[in-house]
């Protein structure tokens, strides 16, 4: 007869009881797996550091429509999250990966291809990591993540500058699926985002699973006006802190 693992106080089992390994072991397994994926596919893995590095939480982060996975914005937020104990794995959609090969700019792949890519990356990561796995991205990358979040049962969703509508087309919002979203979600949005400003977004019906954090006077890249007295660095650090707390407490 197999041994019965006792439940923890309150009826909940600890991480060690659930996985059969310590958090340190799980964190190493996760880091090794993500590092291997990065090496095999040309992705970027920012391993967690700092006091929370042994809390195995991973964020898969996708780029926006016009900038690659190693843009200044992506480098900045990934570095800040890793320093707070969140491992970040970045990848590129097929059209952007091809641009890296031949240098030619091209439009994003059709949505089915983008979603297929997202599903594949998530499956590859989830297969070899322990702990929580969240998904998200900058602009288009976050929007595509929001489409698959419930299907893949992500532990969290982070959208950094969500494109609620195309430029100059507020009459065609991309919000239908957001009304029914079940995944715990944080949307970080600039108050003057040209793809979804505060006035427009506050008029949408969004799921109760979604929290929207407004960056005062900020644009689509989450950069505030100098007149606000806020710095980009302070805003980015606040955003990273909000994200990390949702993943590792």
UniProtKB/TrEMBL annotation:
<protein>
    <recommendedName>
        <fullName>KANL3/Tex30 alpha/beta hydrolase-like domain-containing protein</fullName>
    </recommendedName>
</protein>
<dbReference type="Pfam" id="PF20408">
    <property type="entry name" value="Abhydrolase_11"/>
</dbReference>
<feature type="domain" description="KANL3/Tex30 alpha/beta hydrolase-like">
    <location>
        <begin position="57"/>
        <end position="244"/>
    </location>
</feature>
<feature type="region of interest" description="Disordered">
    <location>
        <begin position="1"/>
        <end position="23"/>
    </location>
</feature>
<dbReference type="InterPro" id="IPR026555">
    <property type="entry name" value="NSL3/Tex30"/>
</dbReference>
<dbReference type="InterPro" id="IPR029058">
    <property type="entry name" value="AB_hydrolase_fold"/>
</dbReference>
<dbReference type="InterPro" id="IPR046879">
    <property type="entry name" value="KANL3/Tex30_Abhydrolase"/>
</dbReference>
């Amino acid at each position: 007869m197999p041994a019965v693992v006792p439940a923890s106080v309150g009826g909940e089992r600890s991480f060690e009881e659930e996985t059969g390994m310590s958090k340190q072991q799980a964190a190493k397994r996760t880091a090794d797996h993500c590092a291997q994926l990065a090496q095999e596919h040309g992705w970027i893995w920012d391993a967690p550091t700092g006091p929370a590095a042994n809390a195995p939480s991973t964020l898969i982060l996708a780029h926006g429509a016009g900038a690659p996975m190693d843009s200044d914005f992506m480098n900045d937020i990934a570095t800040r999250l890793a320093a707070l104990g969140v491992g970040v794995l970045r990848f590129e959609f097929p059209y952007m990966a091809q641009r890296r090969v031949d240098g030619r700019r091209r439009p994003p792949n059709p949505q089915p291809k983008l979603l297929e890519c997202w599903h594949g990356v998530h499956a590859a990561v989830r297969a070899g990591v322990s702990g929580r796995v969240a998904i998200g991205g900058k602009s288009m990358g976050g929007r595509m993540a929001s489409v698959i979040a419930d299907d893949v049962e992500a532990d969290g969703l982070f959208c950094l500058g969500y494109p609620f509508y195309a430029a100059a087309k507020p009459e065609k919002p991309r919000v239908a699926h957001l009304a029914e979203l079940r995944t715990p979600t944080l949307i970080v949005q600039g108050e003057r985002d040209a793809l979804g400003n505060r006035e427009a977004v506050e008029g949408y019906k969004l799921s109760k699973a979604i929290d929207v954090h407004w960056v005062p006077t900020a644009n689509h890249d989450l950069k505030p006006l100098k007149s606000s007295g806020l710095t980009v660095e302070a805003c980015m650090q606040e955003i990273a802190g909000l994200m990390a707390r949702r993943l590792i407490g």
